[in-house]
Amino acid sequence: MLTNRQIIIFKTIVDEFTKTAEPVGSKTLMDLLDFSCSSATIRNEMATLEELGLLEKTHTSSGRIPSSYGYRYYVENLMEKQLDEGVKHSLQKVFRERHYSMDEVVKKSCDILSQMTSLTSVVLGPDSKCQTLQHIQVFPISQRSAVAVFITDHGHTENKTFQFDANVSVEDIQTCCHLLNDKLAGTPISNIVERMQEIQPLLAIHINRHEVLFEAFIHAFMKFASDNVYCSGQSNMLYQPEFADIEKLKRMMKMLEDSSLWRQLASHEGNVTIRIGNESNNEHLQLDDDVAVVTSKFKLHGDEEGQLMIVGPTRMQYNRVVALMEYMSKVIEDMYREEQGGG
């Protein structure tokens, strides 16, 4: 489709634009290309690339920028994933310095991704709805607070701090915990709230402050059963020229708060998926033309999997972002295997 010279010119424009956010002109290209070429020849090649739909003109400059189709062509045909050994070593060191729980590993990975890319990262934890409750442990902190730990059959844990509306005795907390373990063990997470309603009369018989504890546990289980989405680096969008338009920024922030959208974006084949602009035929998955989402899966227990995502402008360094996400997914999987082996 493209000649060697056109490929080099196009790739150089993509690389330069992702770094500077400035349209690239023929004079700039003359300085960047490692072969001799006249300004007129470069302009002709750029015009051809524009006709092919790979480049487009901006209203404010004679230079060109990649189109959404151009970025798609780049990631499918020209992208060379780049992640130097120094970065890998630094990442390994972060996780070796102390023992992290799996939840902490996943969230830490999300934070590192947003810091290293200067974009927004999202992690979608395994969907707890398909798991069953195995055990509950409750640790009283005071008469008005406690920490509960929920453990599923997949080894997933969720910590929840309770703040009670009234004083609750240690005896009441322990009795409630024993009853819930007895009656809820083996119940699918998605059915827990319904099951709690059924055993409420039993709690009323055995526990003085049963209403306070019942409300606290109901809210905790509802949170546990909801989508496990963690977001990092939202403020990075403020520094991207594409989102200087306040309306675009508002749409982006609304998108970041929509956990159901992330679940839909996560349903894809393959380990890594790149969505560029408004490519989807699904009206519920429409992105702005200059927004891209890169997704990488990580596998945990059996069929259980989570997703790492990077959200940003279409002008992102895909070669580095994809390599970084693939490596982070591998780190999470390795840490999980070590934790299971150590257990």
Describe, in plain words, how this protein is organized in 3D.
With 343 residues, the chain is an alpha+beta fold. The chain has 3 domains: 4-78, Orthogonal Bundle (Arc Repressor Mutant, subunit A), CATH 1.10.10.10; 85-127 and 228-342, Beta-Lactamase; 129-225, Enolase-like, domain 1 (2-Layer Sandwich). The protein has 12 helices and 10 strands. It has helices at 4-20, 26-32, 39-51, 68-78, 85-96, 102-117, 170-184, 192-206, 210-225, 246-256, 259-266, 318-342, and strands at 55-57, 64-66, 120-124, 133-142, 145-152, 157-163, 229-232, 272-276, 291-299, 305-313. The strands form 3 sheets. A 5-stranded antiparallel β-sheet has the order 7-3-10-9-8, sandwiched between helices. Strands 4-5-6 form a 3-stranded antiparallel β-sheet, with helices on one face. The longest helix is centred in the last third of the chain and has 25 residues, at 318-342. The termini are far apart. The relative contact order is 0.13.
Shape: elongated
Low-confidence stretches: none
Helix content: 40-55%
The CATH superfamily of the largest domain bears the name GAF domain
Number of strands: 10
Order of helices and strands: HHHEEHHHEEEEHHHEHHEEEH
Largest sheet: 5 strands, antiparallel
Tell me the CATH topology of the largest domain.
Beta-Lactamase
CATH class of the largest domain: Alpha Beta
Total number of domains? 3
CATH architecture designation of the largest domain: 2-Layer Sandwich
Biggest sheet strand order reads: 7-3-10-9-8
